[in-house]
Amino acid sequence: MENLETSPEALESAANIVDAYCRTQKSVMDTYLRNATSMQSEWVDDKTLGSLLEEIRHLNTIVSGLMDEIQSYYPRYFRKKAEMLRNRPKF
Fold first, then answer.
1. How far apart are CA 55 and CA 33, in angstroms?
2. How far, in Å, CA of 8 to CA of 79, rounded?
3. Could you tell me the sign of the dihedral formed by the alpha carbons of 15, 18, 22, 27, in that order?
4. 88: DSSP letter
């Protein structure tokens, strides 16, 4: 941890990275669900595909919720800390 950078720019960058990561993860899950759903017309065994799609939908909901929670807290936290550093007294 000796190389921990706490400049406002580094904190802003961390906020942007967290935000982009969350958006990417949600997009990955949406694409996965969309691709799996598109196989429905070709799949002959509705019983296994149906349970697979339900599991993917469930995972998508969980991942989306977690990413929303992370996005609602950490980018704002890092930006607030960056602003505090910018506004601190300079001697």
1. 10
2. 8
3. positive
4. S
* Model confidence, pTM: 0.81
| Rounded (10°) CA dihedral 84, 5, 17, 62 | -80
Phi-psi domain of 11 (left: phi exceeds 0; alpha: psi -120 through 50; beta: other): alpha
Rounded to whole angstroms, how far apart are CA atoms 55 and 53? 5
Q: What is the pLDDT of residues 23-80, one digit of tens each?
A: 999 999 999 999 999 888 887 776 788 888 999 999 999 999 999 999 999 999 999 9
Q: Which two tokens stand for residue 73?
A: 């807290």
**What distance lies between CA 51 and its chain's CA centroid?**
25
Spell out the residues 6+ positions from residue 86 whose beta carbon is closer than 8 angstroms to its own: 8
